[in-house]
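Database export, one record per block. Field names are fixed; values are copied verbatim from the stored entry.
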Amino acid sequence: MLSFDPKVNTERENYKLLIGTIIPRPIAFVTSMAEDGTINGAPFSYFNIVSSNPPMISLGFQRKDGKMKDTARNILDKKEFVVHIVDESNVEDINATAASLPPNQSEIDKTKLTIVPSEVVSVPGIKEAKVRYECTLEHAVELGEDGNIGVDLVVGKITRFHVDKEIYESGRINQEKLAAISRLAGTNYAKIGKVFSIERPK
């Protein structure tokens, strides 16, 4: 068994160990609104459930050279955002939104994705996602080491679920019809593969 000290590793070495081992990771496509009204859209795989009561999710936004990502800044300013589940039908367009653009340019304009209004929050979502969550900011934490902020951790409370009726069956989600895509390392992604069940002990 190999052993690595994260304090001795470079940031890239730690990054590769994390993204290569914590797999598969769900992908959140996040829409947010800039101060000038520009709708920004970007995918993030540092994403997961925090709680179901109340329904909350977490997003980790890694800073580059200490600079906050547009999405994180928009969320902290507006206190609203929309999270979409990436699936097989929209992954190509959503991948295109990962391009680095100025804050006043919408990544969505570079795709075939369609903006749709939200019901509760002012930030719109995209039509092409089978699942989207309208969210409000619940909590935000700056994380770092030696006084350097490296990560903006955001917890959002879901104020509205939107689910395509084709994947909703008796209160449950049909995972095959959702066809969610997950993130691996490098340029690799994964579909839902073979599924098996194990009963939990009582």
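Remark 1: The chain has a mean pLDDT of 96.
Remark 2: Residues 42 and 97 are 5 Å apart (CA to CA).
End of record.
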